[in-house]
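Researcher: We're teaching a course module on how sequence relates to structure. For the next exercise, students receive a sequence and then see the predicted structure as tokens, so they can try to spot secondary structure elements on their own. Here is the exercise chain.
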Amino acid sequence: MFGKIFNNNKVVKDEKLVEDILKRSVSAIYPNKEDLKKKLLSGERLRIYTGADATGTQLHLGHATNFIVLEKFRKLGHEIIVLFGDFTAKIGDPTDKNSARVPLTDKDVKKNLETWKSQVEKIINFKDKNNPVKIVYNNDWLSKLSFKEVVDLASNFTVQQMIERDMFKKRIQEGKPIYLHEFFYPLMQGYDSVHLNVDLEIGGNDQTFNMLAGRTLLSKMKNKNKFVLATTLLENPVTGKKLMSKSIGGSYIAINDEPNNMFGKVMALPDETIFPMFVDCTNVELDDIEKLKSDVLNLKVNPKDAKMKLAREVVKMFWNEGCSLSAQKNFESVFSGGAIPENLEEVFVESGSKLVDVLLDKKLINSKGEMQRLVGEGAIKNLDTDTKIDNRDFTINETVVLKIGKKRFIKILIKG
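Model: And here is the predicted structure for the students to work with:
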């Protein structure tokens, strides 16, 4: 659908395309959808950005949702900015955190950012000279704020506003500390909007408080109305748990996971996540998604086949169609012949658990000596990635399906 790219510096004013952007993967729009739609159809070229803090080396499919939306706006001709939070990463976003983040050093942040541009390039076209994308780093301006300027920013908010946030309320109830620097995070993210002088910010709905802080600051400091588009989070619709969180036991899928690994991880997701993933992580048309969903509900299509299509589309999105087809072929060869039980045993463990302890507990091996022998023979295989476990001290940090020897199988998931 989004094949149109603006020409002669004119923004594309296509109501169907705009409506598609404003209804897909959208949780809420501030101040409202109608005003933003009117602005987008006015022909005015808007300055739009999304940001991510450099707290890790990999971006995941949850981040991808925002970049997918941003790329659609770029194709309509709007000015696009990608912000890498190298300063805010060192403060630590308190959102959804039951305790303060461990501070990162400049060295940590620099290392984390090494491959971020190449990861985002899987979604956003940085090579288009007609409408180039700008990458910015908020250390460039936040590190230069004086103490007086920070105090002036803080004067726009009350302590009551800050402690109304759910995670702060929870910590207060549990007697856990809230550090003063955590209140600065929404100020800093909010000031990003002021410095960049943006018209619209895109971010996950867990970032709504921070994005609205930017809306407040822009209004007070520049008398400008900033729109906020809060996207839906990738969550299991049954459990409500985030899918892309290592810390709470989600099924973490990175943008730069290798095709076979990515395909296998998608296939390991619970069936109820199929259609949210279709909406937020692929370019399949909404009408086609609804048709497939209806076919699954009416037993015309097996959920496994729908998930197979999802895995193909996800791999195609972040790699290409050739990689997608190859990954499917690899997956089918690994799982062919009905060798894997229909009711595969599942076990939930804490992140960081040792594989040997899990296998001993489930009586899939009899001793640590057997573990050593199996590892030495290459007889323990990760079926998601089609790789052999070569370390007897292997730890479980994400969902994994294993084949032990010829006839033993287990699916290990991380506890929430």
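Model: If you want an answer key for the exercise: The mean pLDDT is 90. The longest helix spans residues 180-196.
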